[in-house]
Amino acid sequence: MKNQWIVRVLSKTLTLASHTRSLCSSTTTSSPSTTFSLKNVTKSNFESALTDLRCLVRDADFVSIDLEMTGVTSAPWRESLECDRFDIRYLKTKDSAEKFAVVQFGVCPFRWDRSKQSFVAHPHNFYIFPRQEIPVDWPSYEFLCQTTSLDFLAKYQFDFNLCIQEGISYLSRGQEDEALRRLHIVYEDELSEMQCNLREARDTPLVRVADVLFTERMKNRISEWRDGLLLHRKGGSKFQESSSDSSQQFQTIFFKMRPALLLNGFTSRQLRLIQLVTEKHFEDLVYIYTNVETSSVQIVYTDSKNDREGLVKEVKDGRRKEAEMKIKAAVGFRHVFDLLSSEQKLIVGHNCFLDIAHIYSKFVGPLPLTAEEFSTSIHKYFPYIIDTKILLNANDVLRPMMKKGSTSLAKAFACVCPEIASGVNGSGLGLKPRVQVEVQVDDMRSSNWNSGAKHEAGYDAFMTGCVFAQACSHLGFDFKLHSSFTNLANDEKLRKHINLLYLSWFSGEIIDLRTGKQTAESSYYNSLKTKYPKIVFSNIALIWGFPLKLKAREIRECISKTFGPLSVTLVYNLDETAVFVQFSKAELVSDFLRLKEILERSNGPISVLHPLSKLLEGGNTRAATYEVYKEICSSPISEVLFADQAEMIGIKWKTEPVGSNVEAETRVGETFIQGDEMNANESDLGKISSMINDLSRGHFRESEIIDSSYPAEAQVSK
Amino acid sequence: MVLRRTMSQRRFLCTKITNHHRHDHRHDHHHNHRRWPIKQVTKSNFSEALEQIKNHIHGSDFVAVSLQRTGSHSSPWHRVLPIDTVETSYFKAKYAAERFQVLQFAVCPFSLRASKVIAHPYNFHLFPRDELKIGMPSYSFSCQSSYLTSMAREGFDFNACIYDGISYLSRTQELASKDRIENLVPSKYMLQSSSANSVADAVFVERIKSRVKHWRNALNDSSTRTEDALIKCLRKLVLGSEAYGSRPCLSIDVCSERQVQLTLEMLREFSDDLVPLLVPANGGGTQAVRVVLTSSKEDRESFQRELQDLEAEQNKRVRGFREVIELISASQKPVVAHNSLNDFTFIHSKFLSSLPSSMDEFKCSLSLVFPHILDVSHLMKEIGPLKKVTNLPAAISYLKRRFFAPIDMEICHQADANEGKIHGYNVLRISELFAKLCSILRIVPETLEADNNRLPSVLEGYANVFSPCSPSSYDPIDRDISVWTDNTRKVDGKDLVFLWGFGGGMSARMLKKLLRNSHEVFSEEFDVRLLDKSCAVVVFCNPGSSESFLEAMDSGGVSCESLREMISDGLRATDYQTYWRACRLGLWEADLADALDKALADDDSLSKAHSEEPSEICWNSELMINLDAL
Q: Can you tell me where the transmembrane regions are (chain B) (predicted)?
């Protein structure tokens, strides 16, 4: 294990040596960069690292973080799409945070050293693994791995063995509370249960001859021992251990100042019989499990009923305390979260909404259903979060520069902190760094440190912090002037960027964690032009399960032929099995759904000749409003293909073959209401239900279907 | 354990292990196998291992397989319970196979010679890497922490697996990806005697014929003439001539499979020196026929050989580990496994195609690939109908204690240069156990070599049984041996009633007491067992009792005050059919109670959709229930 690290560091040193050489010739200011590994923390050194980290975080001005996960999206259609509404984006993030595991957690406290006029950073790289340390109820600990993500981690030499064998485990607050609550219940119940068991134990008859014989023998043995004890107490001879063969199984010891008999080498069935005997025949003996794991069992002699109860309580309390300690110990890595939360420091991340969601789901509890609730909740733990991606895009000096490259962390780092990133690349683009950063790991310190291990959480956290420091400086924040800044987050230049996170970088949607809403000025930060027309969610219908060979263009044609050439403004592929179709008007969505319904019911020539029939071919085509998309996204199931997903959870909306009319009526009504909450008015509703009623009574002739639906556009446009 | 190594034989090191010792502790067993040489295969030595195993499979009588998965079941009721029928256990195995991943696949071709097992064990490390960048074989997979932790404890190298594991594509995935992997397919068209050609067909054939003729003539001309580079270029452009490697070729666009057929026919009649290749279209099918011109008969043959090699290479690249599965399948040798239902649902879903929705279809589809599957856990049951041991080491030591059936394991393998961690013992244990069982049961399949395609009749009765009551073979959470006791009895699915909604923290005993006073049917003998913390099963002894109880539940407990009280407190009940449906629909909620509630809610829509299926499917088979195992 250690060797591996050395190898890793060594290889880095080698590559860096070449960088340094070229660097020396070009820049005179920088001393050769030194490399030592950042602080790697696993199970074995967690305790000591945590103690050190407490001081470092307390003294820090801000703490940057970064996470490595086993995956990002549980299905292709769960990736961030252009057509995702704000609440859907949250649901997708939630799904990701719930399903995947965090395997590395980078924490890097930054402290401004006034004497040296520079920051001191302490990069930590924690390996964490959701190992089940305490026996909990089902469901078992389970997580998803995205194949490409593991491959990606492997590309950057991630050590999976170290993570799984030595990773630090954790309990969320929710899990801890639950474990303690359960412990409490068990403790409370045990006494009453015991009385109950005792009575039943006495009643249980022994059926097998072997059991009866064994029980009798044990009864004699125990009785012998007890009598011996009593004799001894009365001043008689010392208790003689009986025959040599049983002395291995019975051993007299003292347990909590009382004489006791330690039982060895019995099977669990035998032990159960011994327990029965003890409880049935010996009032003054107590059968006690002292250690559940090693199943060490003792029979303890007690003086009186009081003594007996005292002992039972004592043992029970002891066991409870032990269990509580175990739960406390299982909290593990969450202590780091608790530390960050209790110190209320400014948390810095890069494009970190998913990271924060992971932190919440791993260390607090199940993620809330809506972004609003999530924001209120996370705000209690992390009142100040800043996203360097936001900062970079907000800054007039930095933004144009960023546009040349992307604002990925490595690029931004190379751009804003060229001196630290020296080896990475793009020093030509670089700005002159305004803030010095020193790195300290244990006793080693360097003002020109570069471990270069990209996509290692600890190093990424370090880069994020560096980018933040430089960006602050570009925003006009002069660290040198602030003799002591109690809280960076209160500075007016930073305040407007605090708690704003990208929900999706590509769409430029930003969530404000103070309100849980999408920010009004989202567009201000948005550097990407969207190539799609404006998306109106109420105008969108979702179609899936159509013939696979059908292309988006053909779907558009199909629908345009029915509802008019301008009726469809956008057809967007969700994946190969599903599309979003945006209509020009919200009413068209319900018109479309209704028409589809009708066509599927009538098997006559009209439905075959109808332009939509191409879309409905195969009989598996389903359609629904945008709200149904939300429901599908909120499902815990993740099938790879959207059509499969919808089928798995969508049994409810499955278009049934002409079944009971009542059912159909309510269902169509429902979809309609769902889709057009804003626009639906009662007359529309009435129209539909009367139409369906007609249909069910068989008054709806096929010619009427055409009349009422083909020139649907005309109808809508009035 | 005596272990003798002949170090002088460097190349083919035979390790002979005599197995005449007692196993007192299960865990020792594991330790004892430490030094059996099992060939560890990763991406780097796969090609070489593939060649070797091909010969070994060919030369052996049986092939044992054993899989290491990343998880089995996430809730207590997801594991196979004694109340499960063949069908419901299949649904459970299917669910696990679809979610979890195989990281190690051990294969051991072996033969039995008297009391000797001659084995060639291999352990393949798999990782579903997307080698071809087509989003296959697996977008994602689930892991259970406990499985990974216990693998880590045994020294499994996850880095080696993820960095260097062998990838694969299933048969269906290979078909689906044909068009996405850019390769040319040598035409394997069976030329049918063409049906009556239409006029359009004739026109098409004439047109391409003249085009090919023109092209060929032009090529023959230009090869004799020396031409200006520009002219050459222009000529090429006009003729649409391209080059395939060093040979000239021409692409003919086609619009239908009919046209492909016609083109191929025409080319065959036209000339011997033309080799057609099919260019796959994007959405499947064929986009064009590429005609390659060879210079002579020899050249043509060498070109065809080239194509074959190319295809083999391509197959290895695309199929990856599946080549091993194909080898086993092609050999038609009997496959020996432990808990075959679990392993073969995985094999089917990862290497063949996605799992069908019913056990019958599964068996059918599987038997086309593996005609004879022998399950050692099923054979174990033959030893003593009431004795059943759940895991391999326990089974072996059980046999050792009871029977005298010494088996020599002879493992012939090239020694691995590096003494790395050795994994995949289970496959050897399976071989050993199988040999022991054969010897105890007096099934000596000596006749096997004579007729490769048929299983010796002595074994026939044991093949292809997917016993439903086998708890998962490898369960790091509980490794307890569960030996079947005399509390096993036959129960009809009809006599089972599922109960839930009785509130948490209830023990089976308490529930039984409660029920006894609630309704008259409970005055007779009945049994209650908890299936998980949310749901219990009531086993009635008298036929008809379950119906009358369910009726009483449906009526809201009329005339039974205490039952009414319990229903008001949320008690619910249903029959086996609902349970079957929950498994069938894949309502794998964490709590069985939730799953049953959902299954009841979906009742209407489903009963309609599946009305054609006989609802008695589960009643036909009587259940063997071991009440102690519940």
A: none
Instruction: Tell me the two tokens of residue B132.
Output: 């071809």
**Which segments of A603-681 does DSSP mark as H helices, in order?**
605-609, 613-616, 626-633, 642-649, 661-675
**A145, A548, A648: residue with CB nearest B143:** A145
- Verify whether the Cβ–Cβ distance A132 to B146 is below 8 Å: yes
- The answer to whether the beta carbons of residues A464 and A350 sit under 8 Å apart is yes
Q: E-strand spans in B232-363?
A: 241-244, 247-253, 274-280, 286-293, 335-337
Q: What average pLDDT does the structure give for chain B?
A: 75
**B134 contact A CB<8A:** no
Chain B contact for A368, CB < 8 A?
no
CB pair distance less than 8 Å for B606 and A76: no
Q: Tell me how far apart the alpha carbons of residues B407 and B419 are, in angstroms, rounded to a whole number.
A: 26
Give the C-alpha separation, B424 to B421, whole Å. Answer: 10
Question: Token pair 């005599």 is at which residue?
Answer: B18
More reliable by pLDDT, A109 or B391: A109
CATH for A537-717 (3.30.70.330, 3.40.30.10, 3.40.50.720, 3.30.460.40) = 3.30.70.330
Q: What pLDDT, on a 0 to 100 scale, did the predictor assign at position A348?
A: 93
Q: Do A154 and B163 touch (CB under 8 A)?
A: yes
Instruction: Please give the residue of chain B at the shortest CA–CA distance from A641.
Output: B139
Task: Report residue A717's pLDDT band, with 50, 70 and 90 as the boundaries.
Answer: very low
d(CA B16, CA A566): 80
Angstrom distance (rounded) from CA A427 to CA A417: 9
What's the CA gap between A534 and A569, in Å, rounded? 9
Q: Domains of chain B: which residue ranges?
A: 2-169+320-460, 185-298, 488-629
Query: How large is the angle between the packed helices B322-331 and B297-319, nearest 10 degrees?
Result: 110
Residue B80: which of B492, B469, B376 has the closest Cα? B469
- List the 615-674 stretch of A: residues with Cβ below 8 A of B: 638, 640, 648, 651-652, 654, 656, 659
CB A193 within 8 A of CB A330: no
Chain B residues within an 8 Å CB radius of A185:
505
pLDDT at A29 over 60: no
Query: Could you say which of A76, A151, A548 has the minimum Cβ distance to residue B129?
Result: A151
| pLDDT (mean) for A283-294 | 71
A131, A549, A659 ranked by CB distance to B149: nearest: A131
Q: For the segment A110-153, what is each residue's pLDDT rounded down to a tens digit?
A: 998 888 888 899 999 999 999 888 776 656 789 999 999 999 99
- pLDDT tens by residue, B336-384: 998 889 899 999 999 999 999 888 899 999 999 998 898 888 888 777 6
Q: Which residues numbered 562-591 in B keep a CB inside 8 Å of some CB on A?
A: 585-586, 590
Which tens digits make up the pLDDT trace of B506-547? 777 888 888 887 888 888 888 888 888 888 888 888 888 888
Chain A contact present for B283, CB below 8 A: yes
Q: How far A158 CA sits from the closest chain B CA (Å)?
A: 8
CB within 8 Å: B142 and A165: no
Beta bridge partners of B490: B624
Q: Do B608 and A652 touch (CB under 8 A)?
A: no
B202 or B488, which is more confident: B202
* Fold classified for B2-169+320-460: Nucleotidyltransferase; domain 5 (3.30.420)
A189 Cβ under 8 Å from any chain B Cβ: yes
CATH code: domain A2-171+332-525 is 3.30.420.10
Closest CB from B75, B138, B146 relative to A147 = B138
Give the 3-state secondary structure of residue A635: coil
Q: What is the ipTM of this complex?
A: 0.75
DSSP summary character for residue B81: P
Share of chain A above pLDDT 70, in %: 70
Asked if residue A190 lies in contact with residue A246, where contact means CB atoms within 8 angstroms, the answer is: no
